[in-house]
Design goal:
Blueprint lengths: L1 H14 L17 H4 L28 E18 L7 E4 L6 E13 L2 E14 L17 E18 L2 E17 L20 E16 L2 E8 L3 E2 L10 H4 L6 E9 L4 E10 L5 H4 L24 E13 L2 E10 L20 E10 L5 E14 L13 E18 L1
Antiparallel strand pairs: 1-2, 1-3, 1-16, 3-4, 4-5, 5-6, 6-7, 7-8, 7-9, 8-10, 10-11, 11-12, 12-13, 13-14, 14-15, 15-16
Length: about 425
């Protein structure tokens, strides 16, 4: 176990450069290839060791196993500005960096009948844009423009069966995140600290939080729920002039409930509801409006991206064709967190996709190795600005758009 823990720690550090992703706002829409094949619906339908990342109570029911996967993620980010009197007009591609490789893994081990421990390491989410043609060049910006946020969670887990078919679990969360911004020089003049606003390289932050979960089994019906606290993180000191509260960037809290029904021996239907409190984090939720009254970037109540809280809905189905083959499909809907009035700054962070279509399958070999693949497509969604560029910046409107495609493969073993 000591060797395994050391391996996990090294792998976690290696994963952070590839953890950028945006689906449910900037959170991942699922953990593990099996869940991703059914749009991430997993709160009440645990299928592998990474299920403990969705619901820590799942550790009691998945058995002794290890699962590891790799995703190839390709977002298509873009923006357009029209009616601007300061020269911003044009269409811009934010795809200067693509694709992204994202590994994840989970391990669960029962200690006694009804008591299990585990570890999941996964990308919580992220956001990346690289505009080789800088949208703010007419303001005097130079070089490529964009941001790169990556968040990695390490989630050791303990789960206990408190009554037949009734389990609870807890995962203390460790956070490792990185951020960098470039090409935003004109906005630094409106910062509390212009020297810590843009082009400061990659900065790092760590944090802690907790996720708790419940899983109840009632014959063919499973009920699940989780709550994840706000994850308090150290400040991005290199960007103390950009983010509110001098570089603060905590992870917002979230909660969710799930239902899974085995309608037959072959078919299982699952559905999840999740709520993410983006607006509770000032650097994410505060709008640009404080600039109008002289409150600078980096101040306690300084401007932010203006994201609102969102609800997320997921439905999925899996069908066991035979002992060797299981098929999955899913659909997810995420509310758009970006207000139409806040699209200017969100040229840098267009996390606006809403619909997710997924499919997947697992092939179990004669030796018992489980090989799972999935595909995800989030169709292009455009948020058209309305009152998005103030007269101070020349007026007009900024539109932002995003679509995504991802494919992944995972290997799992029952140990």
């Amino acid at each position: 176990m000591r060797e395994f823990a050391s391996f996990c720690a090294v792998l976690a550090l290696l994963m952070i450069p590839a953890a950028a992703r945006a689906t449910d706002g900037y959170f991942q829409n699922g953990l593990g290839a099996k869940a991703k094949g059914q749009a991430g619906a997993a709160i009440a339908d645990p299928q592998d060791a990474l299920s403990i990342g969705a619901n820590p109570a799942a550790a009691v029911v998945v058995g002794h196993r290890f699962d590891g996967g790799l995703d190839i993620f390709v977002p298509n980010r873009s923006a357009a500005v029209s009616g601007n009197g300061a020269g911003l007009n044009g269409s811009y591609s934010g795809n200067g960096l693509n694709p992204f490789l994202m590994p994840e893994f989970g391990y669960v081990r029962p200690l006694t009948d009804g008591l299990s421990v585990g570890l999941a390491v996964y990308g919580n989410g992220g956001m990346n844009t690289v505009y080789k043609q800088n949208p703010f060049a007419s303001f005097g910006a130079t070089g490529h423009a964009g941001v790169d946020l990556k968040q990695l969670f390490v989630a050791p887990t303990v789960a206990l069966q408190v009554a037949p078919g009734q389990s609870i679990g807890v995962s203390p969360l460790g956070l490792l995140q990185s951020f960098k911004a470039s090409g935003l020089q004109p906005f630094a003049a409106s910062s509390l600290d212009p020297t810590a606003f843009t082009n400061r390289g990659t900065d790092w932050s760590v944090g802690t939080g907790v996720r708790v979960g419940y899983l109840g089994q009632f014959g063919p019906v499973n009920l699940g729920a989780f709550y994840q606290s706000e994850v308090a993180a150290t400040r991005f000191d290199n960007y103390a002039g950009l983010f509110a509260e001098r570089g603060s960037f905590d992870v917002p809290s979230s909660w969710g409930i799930g239902l899974s029904v085995a309608t037959s021996e072959a078919l299982t239907l699952s559905g999840d509801f999740k709520r993410i409190a983006y607006s509770s984090i000032r650097s994410i939720g505060t709008t640009l409006s404080p600039l109008a009254v002289g409150t600078p970037f980096g101040a306690a109540d300084g401007p932010g991206f203006g994201w609102r809280d969102i609800s997320v809905y997921k439905v999925g189905a899996r069908y066991v064709v035979n002992p060797s083959l299981t098929l999955r499909v899913g659909y997810g809907y995420s509310e758009n967190p970006v207000r139409t009035s806040q699209t200017l700054l969100n040229i840098l962070a267009p996390g606006v996709v809403t619909h997710h279509l997924t499919a997947g399958a697992t092939w179990t070999t004669a030796s018992g190795t489980e090989i799972t693949g999935y595909i995800l497509h989030a169709p292009r969604n455009t948020v058209k600005g309305h009152g998005s560029i103030s007269s101070t910046f020349g007026g007009g409107e900024a539109d932002v758009a995003l679509s995504q495609t991802a494919v992944g493969v995972a290997v799992g073993w029952k140990l």
